[in-house]
Amino acid sequence: MTARRALAALLLGLAAVALPAAAQRGPAPDHPPGEINAVELPKEAQATLALIRKGGPFPYAKDGAVFGNREGLLPKQKRGYYREYTVKTPGERTRGARRIIKGASGEFFYTDDHYAHFRRIRDQER
């Protein structure tokens, strides 16, 4: 292969990698940033959501405990307004980092990084 052909092959490869990020991710979600549709949640989170709606039984003793919102990332409410529930993480021996937080008014939030970021869950049954 000549140097010119090798350079052309390299440039073609780089062009393929440099596709716009949106084209690589597929179509945009049908919700604002910071939200997630319930059907887009991992299957374990969907199962936890179903248990919360049903009222349990919950697999972890801390499920249903008060979530203090110490990070201040959820809308400010009085203590006791939010409750947290564990979302199983395959391969994890502990409770892992995934949680669903339920507000007293019925709103739900999902975190997969132990409270560093939250997304409001949309399309939940009421």
Task: Characterise this structure.
- This protein has three helices and six strands; from the N terminus they run H-H-E-H-E-E-E-E-E.
- It is an alpha+beta fold and 126 residues long.
- It has one domain: Microbial ribonucleases (Nuclear Transport Factor 2, Chain: A, Roll).
- Strands 1-6-5-4-3-2 form a six-stranded mixed beta sheet, with helices on one face.
- Strand 5 and strand 6 form a beta hairpin.
- The chain is globular and about 70 Å long.
- The protein starts with a helix and ends with a strand.
Write a concise keyword list for the protein shown above.
126 residues, alpha+beta, Nuclear Transport Factor 2, Chain: A, six-stranded mixed β-sheet, 3 helices, 6 strands, globular
